[in-house]
Amino acid sequence: MKAADTAAHANFVLDGPEEPFDPRITAHRGDLADIELAGKMFSPHYAVAMPMRCSAPKAMIRKQGGKNHEAISELLHGEDFHVLDIAGDWAWGYCGHDRYVGYVPVHALQHQKKTPQPTHLIHVRAALIFIEPDFKSGVMKRLPMGSRIACGEVSECGSFLKTGKGYVHVQHVQPIGTKVVFDGSNGTAALAEQLIGAPYLWGGRSGDGLDCSGLVQMVLTLTGVDAPRDSDQQMAALGEDIAEDEDLRRGDLVFFPDHVGLMVDKDRIIHGNSHRMQVAIEPLADVVARFAKTSDQPILARKRLT
After folding, report:
1. Which of 15, 167, 230, 261 sits a CA distance of 20 to 30 A from 21?
2. Is the pLDDT of residue 292 over 60?
3. CA gap 173, 185 in Å, rounded
4. How far apart are CA 257 and CA 225, in angstroms?
5. Domains identified in the chain and CATH numbers
């Protein structure tokens, strides 16, 4: 079923050729497109997106509907997903935070009207939701870094916030829109360092497993910076170029072919990488040497966030 098919109720005119588009962030699959694209791109059917929200701890976003298809990103608890089509156990649509398009299991979603508006982000590698406002009580669930939850009043002990079901420790969350600050810096490298040893997972973007651009997107989100999903998109959208004769600093981004990492100091980089199959800190020179074996230009760009 389509979330809402409007083709029978309105006529749209495409008065020129379609402009080039990025299929990763454009909800158009040939037979169906987002109603927002009507008059800009041709489709036999357009649909009005159904506003949903991830109710599972996390859910992989796949290129096609089916658990054996390639994972392309990940939806975290409390993040919005706009559904354009549902077929069987899979919903097709796009993420609210970065407009990334793909398929998500229907069972991982709930209508936004049935879920409270998130107020806080989990900013540690993972947070536990306790049955009672006591760390000795039972644990209801575990949510990864980046999850969004709705928090209410502070418990009597002052150490927990009430959620829809259960309690989360105040040290594990921050109000959405708040920038995490560590040692007077914007905190990107410090946040990334929390994820050292997390397994490399293609498409992942949580502390349970993530890829290079998922790591960068995650830590930037927690420091109040909206970042695209993939490394090439990030290279085009983020920061200012660093002069070739200038030393790198903690928090700078370095882009390679289909890869990105974050500097922890002027000589070392932290990145989710398939070479070590985990988030790790390495000398930048070692990473450059590996890319030099397959590319004439190992470093594509060095960017500094302002």
Report:
1. 261
2. yes
3. 19
4. 23
5. 33-114 (2.30.30.40), 120-175 (2.30.30.40), 188-304 (3.90.1720.10)
